[in-house]
Design brief:
alpha+beta
Length: about 100
């Protein structure tokens, strides 16, 4: 199982994503979040085809399509974190932290 903790920044609505796959293709997703929009997104996703999630463009991504239905904050990092979780759970990439560092200069 892959677990991804997301601290999204200024909104402070933390999210935990869990992803698991038994066959390296279908990935079951569960999401726990303080954000009602992200909880709704998680409920709509359920089980995903890793190849469809990881090897399509933004426009065709089932994760980004579902995100567009449930919330409009384009800077939210959770959809990308979901895709990274699917990728790692399916064995398409090794789990590795992704970091945004934002500062005013």
């Amino acid at each position: 199982m892959i677990r991804v903790e997301v601290d999204p920044g200024i909104c402070g609505l933390r999210t935990t994503i869990q992803a698991s796959s038994e066959d390296g293709r279908l990935v079951k997703i569960t999401i726990d979040s303080q954000c009602p929009s992200i909880r709704a997104l998680g409920e709509s996703l359920g089980e995903l085809d890793a190849f469809q999630v990881c090897f399509t463009g933004f426009q065709d991504s089932p994760v980004y399509q579902a995100a567009a239905e449930h919330f409009k904050h384009a800077a939210c990092p959770v959809p990308a974190a979901i895709i990274k979780a699917v990728e790692a759970a399916a064995g398409l990439a090794l789990p590795k932290n992704t970091i945004f560092t934002i500062e005013r200069t």
